[in-house]
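Q: what sequence does this backbone want?
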């Protein structure tokens, strides 16, 4: 995508015999009002675009594109180069008043051009859509993306909000007791999986080394290692830069048992309601399920982001998460640029 100017014609026809051209250009601050207006009812609960608008507009690693019709923004798309060298496409929106005229298709092509400029030819571009979004799935499949993997965002009732503020090092067993970690009624009593588990936030400077260990030589105690995780609506691959990014946000945690690494996960507040979200990266289902029941001081996670594997499904079940009304499958699509 070559910065300013008209790049293509979308064939938008206003139906009044006055065909107008739609072009794609970088979004500008003055587009804010129009964009937030047409995004007001994207989903039943609104949209997250107002919360990310400033960041996306001023994003040094990415570009916010606008579809322009007669000087008015009628669509947007954001693309960025992720720390692992891949490109990430997100936030595709078209004004409901001008949908079904090829504008999303135009924005997607422009996003792919921008991705190629940002990440380089041969890099991988990814995006994620809800499996319920049939229109988007059709659009991305027609635009050359192939389904790479599926993840699930599972929910559960909050157990308890109590507890002291999160500590850098603390005993999960104590936390679990403090939180009154629940046991499913049909589950036989077993050894407390939290016993002796020490949790620690991963410092940014150590994240790259941890990624190398997970990729090249994971101890048996850390298996299975997942290829990445979905965090805040984006795919984070198991890559030094990806984990450094998570650690920089303060959301990458390890759990050790008798000195051995036992689990690695992202955990932190997420979304408009600041709910606690857990996304496992490595470790057994049992340990991760235990973590999900009682993170120190932070309350129990309400959301669990897992990959669509039998192991992680079991993890979710053991931890009391389920696919409720607000849960859904998330499809991660990819294509080589
Ligand atoms: C999804 C969305 C961006 C599509 O925008 P659009 O400009 O109407 O899409 P286009 O006109 O470019 O159409 C793209 C394709 O989807 C099809 N399509 C679009 N809307 C459709 C609908 N309501 N029903 C069936 N097919 C539809 C088009 O026919 C076209 O397919 P084709 O290329 O095979 O002919 C728009 O509906 C939107 O903003 N939705 C809400 C936000 C969203 O879902 N964003 C994407 C995921 S984050």
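A:
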């Amino acid at each position: 995508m070559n910065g300013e100017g008209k790049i293509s014609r979308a064939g938008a026809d206003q139906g009044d015999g006055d065909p107008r051209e739609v072009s794609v250009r970088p979004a500008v601050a003055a587009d804010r009002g129009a964009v937030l207006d047409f995004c007001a009812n994207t989903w039943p609960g609104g949209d997250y675009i107002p919360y990310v608008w400033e960041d996306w507009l001023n994003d040094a690693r990415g570009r916010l594109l606008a579809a322009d019709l007669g000087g008015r923004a009628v669509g947007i798309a954001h693309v960025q180069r992720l720390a692992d060298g891949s490109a990430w496409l997100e936030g595709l929106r078209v004004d409901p008043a001008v949908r079904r005229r090829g504008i999303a298709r135009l924005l997607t092509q422009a996003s792919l051009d921008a991705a190629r400029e940002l990440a380089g030819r041969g890099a991988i571009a990814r995006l994620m859509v809800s499996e319920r979004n049939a229109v988007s799935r059709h659009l991305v499949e027609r635009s050359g993306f192939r389904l790479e993997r599926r993840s699930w965002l599972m929910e559960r009732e909050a157990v308890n909000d109590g507890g002291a503020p999160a500590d850098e090092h603390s005993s999960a067993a104590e936390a679990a007791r403090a939180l009154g970690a629940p046991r499913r009624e049909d589950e036989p009593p077993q050894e407390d999986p939290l016993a002796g588990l020490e949790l620690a936030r991963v410092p940014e400077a150590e994240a790259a080394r941890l990624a190398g260990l997970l990729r090249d030589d994971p101890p048996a105690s850390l298996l299975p290692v997942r290829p990445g995780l979905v965090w805040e609506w984006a795919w984070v691959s198991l890559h030094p830069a990806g984990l450094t990014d998570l650690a920089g946000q303060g959301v990458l945690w390890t759990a050790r048992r008798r000195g051995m690494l036992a689990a690695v996960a992202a955990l932190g507040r997420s979304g408009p309601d600041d709910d606690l979200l857990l996304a496992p990266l490595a470790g057994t289902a049992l340990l991760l399920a235990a973590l999900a029941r009682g993170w120190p001081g932070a309350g129990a996670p309400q959301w669990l982001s897992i990959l669509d594997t039998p192991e992680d499904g079991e993890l979710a079940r053991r931890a009391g998460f389920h696919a409720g009304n607000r849960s859904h499958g998330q499809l991660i699509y990819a294509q080589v640029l």
